[in-house]
Amino acid sequence: MKKKFSLTKKNLLSLLCVFVLTVNLNSNSALKKLPNFYDNVPSEKLASDIVENMTDEELLAQTFMFGWAGQDPGDLLLSWIEESGLGSIKIFGWNTGDSHKLAKSISLLQKKSLEGRFGIPLFVATDQEGGWVRHVKGLTSETPGNLAIGASGRPQDSYYSGYYISREIRALGINLNFAPTVDLLTDHDSSIIGPRSFGDSPHAAGILGAAFVKGSRDAGVLTTAKHFPGHGDTSIDSHGRLPKINISEETFRNRELIPFKYLIDAGVPAIMTGHLNFSSILPNGEPATFSKYLLTDILRGELGFKGLIITDDMMMHGAMNFAGGIANAVKMALEAGNDIIESSTTPRHYQAFWKDNIRAMRNDPQFKSRVKDAAFRILVEKLKYFKSDNHVPILPDMEKLHDSIPDKEGQKFFLSLAGRSTTIVRDAAIPFKPEENEDILLVSAYKDFFTHGLKRFPKAKIIEVESAHHHARRFDTIIFCLSDKYSLSILQKIMNKYPKKKYIVISVLSPAFLAKVPQAETAIAIYSYSPASFTAAFGALCGDFSAGGKLPISGIK
């Protein structure tokens, strides 16, 4: 027979004590203080504490870097920051037409990130290489670029290029620059690297790249060496398909890796991987982005790189096609050793990009461990950077924007660099002093070429490249802006038809095309289409100064 339970005063008191104890335990657990990014704790310890308190969603989102369409970030990107704790954002050219709007957008996104559970700021990245690649437009300076630095050959020019470019993007709140490009311009037909390179010398690229890193960091901006392990020996653009680079392992190690060694020794904080296949190293055809051998064994193991490894845009077909889809591409990239996955678009939470990899974290302990390791590395770098004495302010100062961009000191420097880098390749008509009745035709695809050419030769006529061969007959002298394969084909057509005319060729961007027109007895190389570069080109043509630039690539006479 069961004993009847009676609710005595003693029993009631015991039950009440158990209830209070249970509530307190649950309350203490619920109110447990989370670590905060700005806690006064050593970086590695704090990063570890934050990682251990993150959900799977927060861990994975910390490894993502998303771009967005248009000037204003929409609700989708904000939801990634507010709900998942997105780690980084990427600024593209289509975001940058209005510098004030861009700064406001960055400020909004950073505020939302700081309001998150751990108060972690965003890495805000862009491609502001200088010269040809200038994703942040608006008020920023147009500059001569890396190949011009290679032509000047002065590390000081690289230092100040990095410094002044970084001062401008710093004012907007951008703290991570995907520069410098240390790919070697060994394939002269390259349509993707070209003037983004310092030239074809691995040691010069390494020295100049290291100086760019130092100048940028002195201005408070982090840098990224790219595109590991080297994108220069191919004419194929990995945006469209996977380039296959057929060089020996000896050439790979003694040429392609050399610039990266210099930058690792200089303390570059990040390296971007390229969607490239080196067939002698990776005979299975996989891109470097997905190669654990290249990223973990060589980059981290042999070369001793301890910073962040960042993918190129995962929306590029060179990566996605090999992986068979974006979700698998993300997983493969993380497993290979990448820490940050860049995407030019913002995916939705219900898409495979996200859902498949969250599922993989829950089903595969090894993959989850790799994601945790990547998140830990990112947090350590953020803590070291944002708690240093020299970092980009998290919230841009809107009132000082016009005073900072364009950088007035920087513009003076870039004009002087344009002059130092201008290269006289053939000098038959230098200094050029036209006869009184000499008919001159200026041919170009760039308006600034015409603007600066007409300042020197007010009576000259101007014509776009595509129409030049119809009008060349009646002119004595043709001053031709050579910039790509199409303009080369038009110039060759005119030269073949009218071989006795005087030709002055001003090469813009890569000077490789000059090798195709040896009959042009006067040829000048500049390395960007910036106003400063055209000023320098016409100044050198007219004998205002003695141009001292040297061709940074071989094989041109």
3D architecture notes:
By secondary structure, the chain is an alpha/beta fold. The protein contains 21 helices and 18 strands. The strands form 4 sheets. Strands 11-9-7-6-3-2-1-12 form an 8-stranded parallel sheet. Helix 4 links the parallel strand 1 (64-66) and strand 2 (88-91). Helix 3 packs across helix 15 and helix 12 crosses helix 13 (326-336). The longest helix has 22 residues, at 9-30. The N and C termini lie far apart (111 Å). The relative contact order is 0.11. Residues 1-5 and 15-30 have low confidence and may be disordered.
List keywords for this structure.
21 helices; 18 strands; disordered N terminus
Q: Indicate the overall shape.
A: globular
Low-confidence stretches: 1-5, 15-30
Distance between the termini: 111 Å
Beta percentage is: 5-15%
Q: What profile does the largest beta sheet have? A: 8 strands, parallel
Number of helices: 21
The largest sheet has its strands arranged as 11-9-7-6-3-2-1-12
Helix content: 40-55%
Helix- and strand-based class?
A: alpha/beta
Summarize the structure.
This protein has 557 residues and is an alpha/beta fold. The chain has 21 helices and 18 strands.
List the helices and strands and how they pair.
Blueprint: H1 9-30, H2 43-53, H3 56-62, E1 64-66, H4 75-84, E2 88-91, H5 99-114, E3 123-126, E4 128-130, E5 133-134, H6 146-152, H7 155-172, E6 176-177, H8 202-218, E7 222-228, E8 244-245, H9 249-256, H10 258-265, E9 270-273, E10 277-278, H11 292-302, E11 308-311, H12 317-323, H13 326-336, E12 341-343, H14 352-363, H15 365-386, H16 401-404, H17 408-421, E13 423-427, E14 440-444, H18 447-456, E15 461-464, H19 468-471, E16 477-482, H20 485-497, E17 502-507, E18 522-525, H21 531-541
Parallel strand pairs: 1-2, 1-12, 2-3, 3-6, 6-7, 7-9, 8-10, 9-11, 14-15, 14-16, 16-17, 17-18
Antiparallel strand pairs: 4-5, 13-18
Helix pairs in contact: 2-15, 3-15, 6-17, 7-8, 7-17, 8-10, 12-13, 13-14, 14-15, 17-21, 18-21
